[in-house]
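Same chain as my last thread, 171 residues:
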Amino acid sequence: MSKETGVLAGFREFLMRGNVIELAVAVVVGAAFTNIVNAVVKGVINPIVGALGSQNLDHYKACLTTCPINPKTGEYTDGIYILWGSVLSAALTFLITAAVVYFLMILPMNKWKARQQAKKALLETAAEPTVEPTELELLTQIRDALVAQRGASAAERNSSAPAPKASGPRP
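reply #2:
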């Protein structure tokens, strides 16, 4: 029974880690923005790329071998070719999705976490009690101050007063 509890506690701890939660949020938000991102790619990016040729990036390809072209459609009819337009379209979709997730979810969340940590640190320093010196420490400080004062006044007397004459013992 305790092993089962330990396994479940470990699983709960794994799920509650920050990285797992952030990854789950990124996947969900990325899936939610897929239609928006696809619309941006097809409505904005593809026409810009289409200014150089076709608006559909899937038509961009490179032939690795001798590829005959159909004169009516302008398409390759045979041969081995690479569909680099599809790869470019997928890469643009990924970059736009990543930018949306980062700038709309991760960046504001990191700023919020930083503010929360700053507030927590401020509260911890404000709540931290000041340690007052003990009686022994105060007495030690007073003694050190008196010794320093006595040493300073003795040094002043020695520098301003003439040196005493050497005479016999004092009565």
